[in-house]
Write a structure and sequence with these properties.
Distance between the termini: 28 Å
Order of helices and strands: HEHEHEHEHHEHEEEE
Strand content: 15-25%
CATH class: Alpha Beta
CATH topology: Rossmann fold
CATH superfamily: Vaccinia Virus protein VP39
Shape: globular
Number of helices: 7
Largest sheet: 7 strands, mixed
CATH architecture: 3-Layer(aba) Sandwich
Strand order of the largest sheet: 3-2-1-4-5-7-6
Length: 178
């Protein structure tokens, strides 16, 4: 069996037809129609917001994505996802995907998952230091490691969308704590 795609795993974890919510993908680099990880949700009329910190990637992204914005949440003293969302009419973000970025921990630190009702966060960590920093933040926010899908780690906070059993695994150096 081949490796599962992130979007396919999201569809397996929750029923996208049962929920009408929102998703944010930070670091979205999809530049072809139907390539976005959250396309499956967008076809079901979910609000899918793609955020990109790099202007060149943003221009390609904007060709195919209805809701794409150029914002950099990795800069110190820069705009955060919360700061950006507060200026929109977004009321809920059930899924957050962070990929292709240098400092996912900075992105996570500027996102209030409780405020937005987030239950699933998928992060592509570029190195072990960022993974340790990111997992500290996720643990403080009540998320537990669920599984690794391709190059991203999935973290969940049980709620209305995800009701599965979670064995807590957080990276700590070269060992996993259970």
């Amino acid at each position: 069996m081949g490796e599962i795609l992130i979007c396919d795993r999201l569809v397996q974890l929750i029923d996208p037809d049962q929920f009408r919510s929102g998703c944010v993908e930070y670091g979205a680099t999809d530049n072809y129609a139907f390539e976005n990880h959250l396309y499956e949700y967008e076809t079901r009329n979910w609000k899918v917001l793609c955020l990109q910190p790099d202007e060149e990637e943003f221009i390609k992204l904007r060709l195919y994505r209805r809701l794409a914005k150029l914002i950099d949440c990795e800069k110190k003293d820069g705009v955060t996802i919360d700061g950006f969302l507060e200026r929109t009419n977004v009321t809920e973000v059930k899924i957050l995907l962070i990929k292709n970025v240098e400092f996912p921990s900075r992105v996570l630190s500027g996102f209030n998952s409780s405020r937005w009702g987030t239950e699933i966060i998928s992060v592509q960590f570029p190195n072990s230091f960022e993974k340790e920093e990111g997992e500290k933040i996720l643990r403080q926010k009540g998320f537990k490691h669920f599984e690794k899908v391709t190059v991203s780690d999935f973290y969940v906070k049980p709620g209305t969308m995800f009701k599965g059993e979670i064995k807590e695994k957080f990276h700590s150096g070269n060992l996993f704590e259970v």
